Amino acid sequence: MKKISFGILLVSIFLGSCKKYLKEGDLYKEVIVRFPVNGISGNNDPDFITFPAYTYLVDFDKRDYPKVDSITFNATVFTNTIADITYARLFNITDNVEIANSTLSSSGNNFEGKQVHSNNFYQSLPDKRITLALQVKGGPGSVYNPFLKLRR
Question: How far apart are CA 91 and CA 103, in angstroms?
Fold first, then answer.
């Protein structure tokens, strides 16, 4: 009888702590929104090049994520030589404007890639549904696994 009561007590403590953890919302303080492409490459272009429609993040709306106040653009950037600099940024296709503060870059001989992120551009996004495109310049280099990180 004591063994069963002790087991029930342990299960109650465990479930009670899980409920508390879930109630505080600790699991949802960060959301990752991935672009539908694994990688894109720059070819030493002096101007930003917009990638095709299949790479777009369609119907993105920051209002779909309540309490979020920080959004960054993140990716792994590869460059070929020490002199190379690869830039990537987001472009609002809907309004035909770049997203301020979304530019990221990497330089140097990064054959293994370097994880980089932009500044917070939450305030630069309009309060409506938009389509986001990836743009790259410089290089030659590549941008892999692009995603948005939303935090509160």
Answer: 10
Type and span of the H or E element at 149: strand 141-151
Burial 61-84 (b: 16+ CB within 10 A, else e): ebeebeebeebbbbbbbbbeeeeb
Q: Does 115 reside within a domain?
A: yes
Strand partners, 73: 148
Residue 65 is part of a domain; what is its CATH number?
Answer: 2.60.120.660
How many domains does the structure of the chain reveal?
Answer: 1
Q: How many CA atoms lie within 13 A of 136 on its CB side?
A: 25
Please tell me the total number of residues recorded for the chain in this structure: 152
Tell whether omega for the bond before 126 is within 30 degrees of 0, i.e. cis.
no
pLDDT in tens, 2-53: 444 333 333 333 333 323 222 345 446 889 999 998 877 767 778 898 988 9
Q: Give me the domain span that covers residue 78.
A: 28-151
pTM of the model: 0.76
Residue 68 lies in a domain: yes
Query: Does 140 sit behind a cis peptide bond, omega within 30 degrees of 0 on the bond before it?
Result: yes
